[in-house]
Design a protein that fits this description.
Number of helices: 1
Number of strands: 0
Strand content: under 5%
Helix content: over 70%
Largest sheet: none
Structural class: mainly alpha
Distance between the termini: 58 Å
Oligomer: single chain
Order of helices and strands: H
Length: 53
């Protein structure tokens, strides 16, 4: 295999790993935001609005 080809493949793999990590961070952030929103809604006592911080 040519050195240039090996380098290109390594760089492609590195970019793929970075993209996967970014996607995982984004999904985790969205999941936590959604859970926090649900928790605020669920903590409201009947007849009283939930307090927002």
């Amino acid at each position: 295999m040519h050195p240039e080809m090996t380098l290109a493949l390594a760089n492609d793999r590195r970019r793929d790993l970075i993209a996967e990590a970014d996607q995982e961070r984004l999904l985790t952030s969205a999941r936590l935001t959604r859970l926090a929103r649900r928790a605020r809604k669920a903590s409201a006592v009947r007849g009283h609005p939930a307090t927002q911080y």
